[in-house]
Amino acid sequence: MQKPLAVLFDIDETLVHTGGAGGRSWTWAFDHLHGVAADIGDHTSAGETDPEVGRQTFEGVMGRTPTDAEMAALYAAYLWHLADDIRTSEGYRVLDGAEEALRALSDAGVVLGVISGAMEGAARTKMEPAGLGRWFVFGGYGSDSPDRTEATRAAIRKASLLVGHDLSPTEVFVVGDTPHDVTSAHAAGATGIGVASGKHSVDELREAGADAVLTSLTEAFPGL
Ligand SMILES: [Mg+2]
What we know:
This protein is α/β, with parallel strands linked by helices. It has 8 helices and 8 strands; from the N terminus they run ββαααβαβαβαβαβαβ.
């Protein structure tokens, strides 16, 4: 594999484990706004975007479609709670090798971006306790599109604007912990690198078609 020009990193279970801060914050938001007990795990799966998580959980617990204003209030309440929860979350940690991989890529002249299903505000918040935001100059987020492939396309478009020309699939790597991250990378026209640091195994990521799979970011990064 040749060295990429740009690498996009997923956040949850790829760079950091938040110790459940996201799930708790959704639960708090639903309780605060609607007085209902909501568990996003009952309605969604890992790797879904925040807009999908919010909407599907709303429909699941409220039994109806949310209005635009209700979704806006939900996003705001979620983010409000997350900003506090992330600071006190006992299980919060940066995953093994993440900072070393970011440093190695940065030192090699690779431009770094975020690709996350989290809304931009939530993505930044999740990186804040560890100061990881310093590595990323741009990104694609769940707030760019509820569809992860579209959010990945948005990130690649921003990378192309930054570099000054269109980027081919071999020039952009997407790094993520779920099969959906890998298939979205391919659909958006990027190389898909799986990291088995979340709930999905090396085999599952290979089966999703990953161009390379790492057990963790402590392994040598492809192309370096
Ligand atoms: Mg993830």
